[in-house]
What does this fold into?
Amino acid sequence: MKNKFVLVLFCLTNALLSFAQTKPKSLNQANWQQSVDYEIKVSLDTQYHVLRGFESISYKNNSPNTISEVYMHLWPNAYKNRTTAYAKQDLENGSISFYFSEESDKGYIDSINFLVDQQIVKWDYTENIDVAKIILNRPLQPNETIIISTPFKVKLPKVFSRLGFENGHYCITQWYPKPAVYDINGWNPMSYLNQGEFYSEFGKFDVQITVPKNLVVAATGEVQDPEEKTWWRKLKDENNVPHPSNSDVKTLHFIQDNVHDFAWFANKNYRVDFDTVTLNNGQKVETWIFEVSKKEAPKGIEHLNDGVKYYSDKVGNYPYSIAQVVITPLIAGGGMEYPTITNCGSIDRTTIIHEVGHNWFYGILGSNERDYPWMDESINTYYEERSQKDLSSNPNAGMISLFGMKISQLDLMVNLTLRKNLDQAGNLKSEAYTDANYGAIVYGKNPKSIAYLQHYLGDDMFDKMMQAYYIQWKFKHPLPNDFRIHAETFTGKNLSWFFDELMGTTKKMDYSVKSLQNSKLTLKNKGQISSPVLLNKLDHDTIVAAVWLNGFLNKQTFSLDSLGLGGFNKYTSFEINPTSQTVDLYPQNNFAKPQGVFKTSVPLKFQLIFGIENNKARQTFIAPVYGYNLYNKNMFGLSFYNSIFPQKKTEFIFTPLYSFATKDLNGFFSIHRNIYGAGKIRNIQVGLKASRFGNNAISFRSNDIEIDNIIKEFGSYTDRTSFEKIAPFLKLNLRPRNERSNIEQSITLRYVMVNEQFSTQGYYANFGSDHYGVSNLKYHYQRDHALYPSSFNFDYQLGLKNNGLNRLALDFTQSFTYSKHKKAASIRLFTGMFFARETYAGGIRSVNQKVYENAMFTAGGTLGSNDYLFDEVMIGRSDFTPGFWSHQILQRDAGFRNFVNLGNTDRWISAANLTIPFPLPVPLGFYGDFSYAKLPFSAGNNGNFSYVGGIYIQIIKDILCIYVPAVSSENVSDYWDLNKADNIFKKTSFTLNLNKLSPIQFIRNFKL
It folds into this structure.
């Protein structure tokens, strides 16, 4: 009976422990924090770039819990090999510099020997070698203190992220063994990551650093050696001032209380500048800036001063006596913050103010940035953006220059991402974001959302709320609910629209003005967020009154008189949700005026070539265009388009081109509607594409009696023609299961209608009856892995009018990156088959027969004449002459990169294409193409095997490449001999992908 009771108790205990391990984390912090004080002695070996140190940590358990183990961060081990969490994330984000680094450039920490209260303890690495766990010999009770000590040695890596040595700079960050945070949720062990910052315990640092005397060392806290600061001051006025020490080395002593990290930087060539800032409470703060310079003291001290003063005024007074900026070759972003010292990649006002501002949210409040990056990065970016406007009289302050135009960087990042529905929620963990969204959401949408909250609450209430939050939670590690409860309690408002919807989901905000009739304003919520609406009344574009409306879904009508916004004149207009104060996604539908024909439409505006999106106009851009092909010769025209970026709901491009040779209009047109998807569908595009250009093709029909007689006699007639194409389409862009997988998938359904006619017959003559129509289902998969990118395409075509196609093509490409120069070898595998075969009688050939023959799989190279759906842009589409353009080939079917006509097949074909670039920074490599196909002259069911290979010269990546053959199969050589290709030039071919040269498409597809 007793044993059964023990067994039941054991099972129940395990079940409870399992539940405890899986229950959601608390979002409310405890009213206690652990206390961790450090004494560290470290020396720098500048010959081998090694740190040797010893630390003693006083760890006090202020929690009500008994602790039996301590997790320790050993973050230099992140740089030890390719399997660390840092290395894996770096690859996921597309970087290969660490992966292909030399062993000598890697880093690690070793010589660890943990003692607790001078007693040997058991410890080991966790599943990650940069996190260790110490098993205490006896549990640490509440209010008890232990001393953890260990020697350590750090081999410094090259600067891949934050820690390391490069070009004379020592960047010593995340360098010492450090306990993880123990809080309301227990232990928070975390591996080092480049994307994703830190969470550490507050305490006192007492650090002694021994270095060669000629090194200038800037570190967290106050240096305790007065002669060192005296030496610093001399470095403002002149370079290479000798250090006063009589020995070759010096030991510097730094102390700082109430901080959770310690960083230091050293270089023998630092010059300095310094100043003092007086805060509003009378406290004086020394400010210092360090930069390698041989000419003069570094600029930028005023930016540091502005940052310290601004954040002290807006958030709360800076509690330390010193603030510093060090300029180094930083790899992890533009800057990186540490208590009392900031590391920046350059002297840039925005960067310095931003990084200095982290002292408040990362430093003094100590938020958990790894799990809740919005609590530091987003709030801090909001203040950085606000400071640009508050500290400058320039109306363009905070803007960036793009192609000579000023634009808000936050607006650009947000709109590029949200309008494509690529965004993620704003309250995720840092490692959950894609590389692009870490910028677009954490540094873009979230700060704009906080600015929205500020404008809603009003500057005075918002500032007082944040100041009270700072006072209440400084040095206490607040969690998300702590901020929310404080904000809602302080303001007395329900802010669920902000925390639950705007920050917590990917729902879009898009209010619009539906109508304005007789002082009745009807608004429609086209989005999914019922957030407050700001309604402005304007006179001559000057705001004369403003009212906040409660959020709503669907439609709602408001009486302007009741809102106190009545009384109109001819200059009166109304605007909702200006983008400077909200995150409304499509502001062009946010306007109304009492008079005029189009009361709720912004005016049409024509602009030359390019411009940033204008919220108060429907822009149409106009650009002169030149075109050329062998048939129309020189063509000139204009291109009209309504969008470059960010994406609009409806986008069009219309480019008419006039040929002076053929004296007709050609060109192309494209229009589509972007629709947000849900669930597995990210977004939908519904649209139509059309084009018309000259050609030199075989025709089968004519209203000309003379040509009709020729066709009757010879079966066909070759002359100058025009092809006309219309293709409606539906494209579904799919959402991957894991956003960080770098996987893109799409399904496209289109119906392609092509009409080829004599150019003399005009435009779209007999198109309805004479065109051939092909329905086309495509599936595209692409994974942009830094080492092993791959793609797969499924392409099924079924003829529905004037042709009998029933064709399937599959191709798979796998690449293998093998060089630090980003060289990737690849293999493409292709197979194709016809499910139904057509036979044609002799006599007059038909459109059906021509399309069928051009759609057959080619065992060798593919020319423009095989592009029967006219998807490619080509100079010499039907050029069979020995001229230059006859050497242009398409990479379709067997994908041979040299033209050889080995025959076409309507049965089956398999092929492989190898590409192996030279492992050097040169645009050269090897290629090999192989095909095995059932050709018409093949005996029985056997196929014909063919190959050709040689050296390629890449002129423009993915656009222009030249292929020079060196080896080939016998049937390929026979073809060249038969066609008198008796020199290397006649055998050489090239690919020219003009589709990728469209600047508009390039910008539209731009990825952050």
